[in-house]
Records
---
Amino acid sequence: MRGQTPIQAEGRRVVRNGSRHWGLSPVLETAAAWLLGFLWILPLLYAVWTAFHPGEFSTRFELGAPLTLENFRRAWDAAPFARYFVNSFALVTMVLGAQLVLCTLAAYAFARYEFPGKDVAFVLVLLQLMIMPDVLIVENYRTMARLGVLDSIPAMALPYVASAFGIFLLRQTFKTVPRELDEAARVEGAGSLRVLWEVYVPLARPVYLAYGLVSVSYHWNNFLWPLIVTNSVSSRPVTVGLQVFSSGDQGIDWSIITAATLMSCGPLLLAFLLFQRQFVQSFMRAGIR
Amino acid sequence: MSRNAIHGWLLLLPALAFLALFTHWPVIGTIWDSFHATPKGGRPAPWVGLENYQVMLGDEVFWKSLRNNLWYAVGTIPVSIALAMLMAVWVNSKMAGRTWLRMAFFTPTVLPMIAVANIWLFFYTPQYGLLDQVLGHFGAGGRNWLGNPETALACVIVVAIWKEAGFFMIFYLAALQAIPPSLAEAAAVEGASRRYYFRRVVFPLLMPTTLFVLVNAIINSVRLVDHIFVMTRGGPNNATSLLLFHVYNVGFTYWDTGYAAALTLVLLAVLALVAIGQFVFLDKKVHYQ
């Protein structure tokens, strides 16, 4: 390897100079890392403190402060959160379901078929990596109005169901499947779709999991587009519901607002804490291109 | 066309249809609508030529938002990338408590921006907020951080950095784990310092990741406006109005969709520049191998 020669030379020089670290001692470095970690988690700890204690302790930090679930009960009663959760759940399910089907089919075409116009089609797909539906709110709103689906779950889902990211990710994965497996299945008389279903999809399972987690967290957390296309309790997802709730007539009762905030993060946060490793690995897998 | 080609296109068709309807068509529609007035009362919108763009030139909020967005990008991108790299190096080392650290850094990624914005709003609140309480101990309390045009944008930038750094960390972590351990061993045998090993070996190998993260960070600086809705609503005196937020206001508060289309086109132009920049840079050598 060419790169080693300068390393060797410089390495000797460094040994002679006797500096083996960053310039920081390992203890100091660990302390710095922990401090940053603490700062990063601090807003969340703060919210947990406020939400689980009575209002008078929301800005006072005393060890003996009594714990309570009252704030959660009051937040839950003050707005139709149950309905919001159902809507959010329907939204992420619809988006993910449609994405999996559409992206699988398209990725299969890009990975294993030769056809005229393939390169142009691929560029047209990748365009969406740059120009996401998030910035096309004005035109997409018009389209939804023309389709007559405003204020519904499909209105929130439709712009996202064909995902360039998903197509790209699955295409990369399908390309790594050995051709022999594909051919063996075809020799046994399987059609294209059965080969896709029985050979490609099972082999890509970890990638599906990764993509699923990324997609679910994205759409559970999405705000701007749902805010624009929904205007009633029957379709609002939890993010928009929370915004309506906290900017409404709650005044500034921080205990209730933080309780509502934690509730809206709840399902994802809980899933993340339980399956931390899978989450991190999924985001990592989805990020490697 | 061969059977194979027809199959390929059929597989692609559903995804391409959705992309055409919700990505390609809206882009063309944005250009078209930006030369038309806002339609009124069911009549088709009249052609107004460059009038929307003339309005834009005289629109102070637009220029303010553009400047703000530039500062938002300048403030968010380098810091979050540098922090992400640092976090990844720490989490990838044998440091005590690294699992805990990874969780602390990554948690903001899975939380909805709109929800954590509530927590940060509380954090910044004068007198009651944690920030003011802590600063009060040092005699520097009593400031309205979000209410002051001079500090509001910085507060919003801090939230964006907090939200993004852990997400970018994941990509660096994946890249660090892909570096063969033999390189570190060789460097250690030769007595190279960690600083030297990072600067001359790790940092160059991370360059493709940095480019990838940079592109994502630029896109996010255009896209990430959710917290503005909760924390400042663009105020005070438009000090935190960002481009996409201005598009939202013009399009969905004042319902001036013609002008909103012209503003959207500015966003699309920025994204196109990023795409071209990425294309040019990808040709250059970003890491040596």
---
Amino acid sequence: MTYILHFLGFGQGGWGAALLVASGVTLALSVLGFLLGAVFGALSAGGRLSRRLVPAGLAKAYGTVFRGIPDLLTIYLLYYGGSIALTQIGKFFGSAGFVGLPTFATGVLAIGIISGAYQGEVYRGAYQAVDLGQFDACKALGLSGFQSLRLVVVPQLMRHALPGLGNVWQLVLKDSALISVIGLVELMRQAQIGAGSTREPFIFYIAAAGLYFVIAVVTASVFRYGEARAWRGMVHA
Amino acid sequence: MKIHRLAAVAAVLGMLGFGQPTLAQDAPKAITIATEGAYAPWNFTNADGKLDGLEIDLANDLCARMKVECTIIAQDWDGLIPSLKVGKFDVIMAGMFITKKRLETIDFTQPYAVDPGSFAVAKDSDLGKLGLSGEKFNLDDEAASMAAIEKLKPLLKGKVVGVQAATAMLEFVKKYFGDTVEIREYKTTEQHDLDLAAGRIDALFAQQTALATTLAKPEFADYTVAGPGFVGGLFGLGTGAGLRKEDTKLKDMLNKAIDEAIADGTIKRISEKWVKTDVTPVK
Amino acid sequence: MIDLAFFLEIIPALLAGLPLTLQLAASSISIGFIMALLLALAQQGNHRFVVWPIRAFVAVFRGTPLLVQIFLIYYGLGQFRPTLQAIGLWWLFREPYWCAIIALSLNTAAYGSEILRGAIQGVPRGLVEAATASGMSRYLTLRLVVLPLALRQAIPSYSNEIILMVKGTSLASIITLVEVTGIAQGLISQTYRAVEVFVTAGAIYLTLNFTIISALNALEAWLTPYRARV
């Protein structure tokens, strides 16, 4: 037992602090990726619900491609191809040098794109679950499209979206482990470094699994609390 | 609306940060050198996160000679060349061999080290019993090296060999032993070391100095470097610093510094500190 | 412009990894399904000492990333070679192929057992009571009434899980297995043409997914003819 604590503890030669810092990176990566995904998801849902062919087609393609292709492949695309693409775009705007994304930003972008595809589906389903009468009422009151979205539809939509979003969040948390392959030192990578350095892979990967589990459980309860608040005063379906 | 959008995009790109301007023909005052940070004793990361190793010492020495300010960063092996080409840094010093294939896309300085590639196997295996033969075969000398390779083949038949992916080592094993052994590719040397210790693979193929450092660790007590070492041929001229093709001025500066370092024995001194052998290339 | 020659070069290279991808997916999905079914059924008995360990297993495997699970089983258990050799199981954990299948199967078993558990509980109670009233044994009820209905109910959710498993096989590339994603990564780092390789490899996976979803849709239509709109 002391043997295990020696490696995971906070003293000399202990990796506890490094692992906790890395968990923080994982959380930051996941939260930012999830929020970026919310933006992409909202756009995607908007596209899907549109009556015009181009937005609907693009949104459907986005959702199908990034939900159907392994996340690892998407991450490789952004890591190897991202800097090249950005530098080209930068040159177009007149920049002389390298326009690069640090690994953290690449990770956030990758998670944003992947979770956006899933979140798009969630928002679309939630939008369609809002009672049609609400839309009629908005028109009757003379609210503009934007106003009705902001004041009426989105608050109700979020209520239906929360369970789905909770699932996507768990997916985001797990995908953050994949960002380790592009060199970012988040929890998975730190566990690998520790395992390689001390030749004790079992201890480190169990510790990593434990930390992921704790983060998953704690954040799941945050979503449950959110759901309870969203349904307060309402009769749950 | 359109102008606002354009401005917004430009602002976002601006925030992403612009790196060094392209160097080309001007003499640079400051450069960024990238290494792997996971290839002891050439370049590795200490427990406290700092980079250390033979190439770090050499890089600092060369930069002092060139009177240029250097920043050394670490990057995963398989991302080194793509990132160099895109401009993320200016020089690669990561135990990278100067191979014809790589010369198609990037340029190299002259070699600053020559270290043969060898197998590491269990002491009690067929090859292990032969031990390190100390011979070096240059693959350019086809007759002699092919003879040595043919002698090795029966000793390795059917074994599982671990190699780091995207290296000249892998090309060597694939080309000469592809039909004799089962090859497993690993992202880092650390991973294939772990699998050797776990007994999942029977042999490694890597640079002799790196192998010696690995096998010095206690869990590899039953393993040894064995057989001859191989240089030349698809291994190229040796280990050199990778550069973009258009950075000709930087290449000249580095070559001059490397010449000086070879001439006054600095490379010999640094290499004996880290690997107890002299890896200076023969001119 | 589109470099057709390049595409023609990489397509066969990538397709070479498809058999392994399919093998990993098919094996782990089948093994995982059987395990999921057993776990779901075991939880119907409501015995505390059976249900709690199963719920713990499910929580752990759903709550941690698949990558961590794969690394644990491959590198983590590799540390215990002497012990495994002593109990004669080393041959299993020595090969990355079996380690990948074990990790993937356990993972899909955890998710699958939740899907099947929900589906079994979703069978209307009245049908089960009617079966018992007709004198059917527990086993017969299960075989003739509960399982056919539950499995049919589970097809949409389970098809999601199958797609996730196909994507999961890509993680096997991290423990030296040469399947499609592993080959794609090698190609990208050799040729630096990420977009083309991504598009081709992506197309392979999308075609695979499309085939699987169509097959499952056909299966569902065949099993529920009364729902088809003429």
